[in-house]
């Protein structure tokens, strides 16, 4: 019986249904790409953690061999320390990810800033990475006089663990990608930005190694990005080191300045005057 009342269009028009199907397909593709990306990332993480662990295991087995000379055992112990430093550095980066994102969402630090002496920080981190550098035929040099001229008697007012991790990431990259027989320089830096005329102070890490194109320089702090030369030299990598350093500097109202010319690269952590006291 026809009551004259209009019936609701529960199914929607053909165009609406087709649009919904297209949106569902798009979401499915995005989900699949996310799954593949996550799988690749986890595989890379596993590889990066496994490599130093295996090196430590092999070195320990060699040390246990009575036929190995004392001199060789000393070198093996140095290598164990170097690989241990790499392992700790990787774990710190991975564990920092979620906490740092939470800090950004809250717009505040998890820990209270404290006064940190920039030169002492640089020297301590350089010492941590020196065995790794030596294993690759490289050296790390902290140029004390540059810190004196840039900072004088001033300290950095920062969250020490975060800034130490940011600087560690720069040093670790320099050690990993530098050419054998070259030096990595850690210096106090003062930079005037032409577009604003403002002068910033900070800590730079300079090395000679892989070429980085201008297009790659712009993307180095993107999460997961790695330059072509870096991927060719060391296929396994997460591309989160510079991303984390950049996020840490953002929390400190600063930024990372990257400059590259030929095989020379310089990365600088720059702080506002409010963080230098």
SSE blueprint and pairings:
Layout: H1 14-64, H2 70-106, E1 114-116, H3 118-135, E2 139-143, H4 144-151, E3 156-158, H5 160-177, E4 183-192, E5 199-208, H6 214-217, H7 228-233, H8 241-251, E6 255-261, E7 264-271
Parallel strand pairs: 2-4
Antiparallel strand pairs: 1-3, 4-5, 5-7, 6-7
Helix pairs in contact: 1-2, 2-3, 2-5, 2-8, 3-5, 5-8
Task: Give structural notes.
- With 277 residues, the chain is of the alpha+beta class.
- The protein folds into 2 domains: 16-92, Helix Hairpins (Orthogonal Bundle); 113-275, 2-Layer Sandwich (Heat Shock Protein 90).
- It contains 8 helices and 7 strands.
- A hairpin with a 2-residue loop joins strand 6 (255-261) and strand 7.
- The longest helix has 51 residues, at 14-64.
- Largest sheet strand order: 2-4-5-7-6
Low-confidence stretches: none
Structural class of the helices, strands and pairings?
A: alpha+beta
What is the H/E order? HHEHEHEHEEHHHEE
């Amino acid at each position: 019986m026809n009551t004259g009342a209009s019936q609701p269009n529960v199914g929607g028009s053909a165009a609406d249904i087709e649009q919904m199907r297209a949106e569902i397909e798009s979401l499915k593709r995005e989900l699949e790409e996310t799954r593949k990306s996550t799988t690749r990332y986890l595989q890379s993480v596993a590889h990066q953690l496994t490599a130093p662990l295996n090196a430590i295991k092999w070195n320990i087995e060699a040390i246990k061999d009575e036929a190995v000379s004392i001199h060789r055992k000393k070198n093996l112990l140095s290598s164990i320390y170097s690989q241990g430093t790499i392992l700790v550095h990787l774990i710190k980066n991975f564990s920092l990810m979620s906490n740092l994102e939470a800090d950004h969402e809250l717009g505040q630090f998890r820990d209270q800033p404290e006064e940190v002496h920039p030169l002492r920080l640089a020297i301590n981190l350089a010492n941590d990475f020196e065995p790794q550098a030596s294993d690759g035929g490289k050296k790390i040099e902290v140029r004390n006089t540059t810190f004196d001229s840039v900072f004088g008697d001033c300290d950095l007012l920062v969250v020490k663990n975060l800034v130490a991790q940011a600087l560690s990431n720069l040093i670790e990259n320099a050690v990993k990608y530098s050419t054998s027989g070259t030096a990595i320089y850690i210096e106090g830096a003062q930079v005037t930005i032409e577009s604003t005329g403002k002068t910033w102070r900070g800590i730079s890490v300079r090395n000679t190694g892989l070429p980085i194109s201008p297009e790659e320089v712009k993307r180095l702090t993107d999460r997961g990005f790695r330059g072509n030369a870096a991927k060719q030299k060391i296929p396994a990598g997460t591309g989160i080191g510079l991303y984390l350093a950049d996020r840490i500097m953002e929390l400190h109202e600063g930024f990372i300045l990257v400059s590259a010319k030929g095989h020379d690269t310089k990365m600088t952590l720059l702080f506002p005057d409010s963080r230098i006291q």
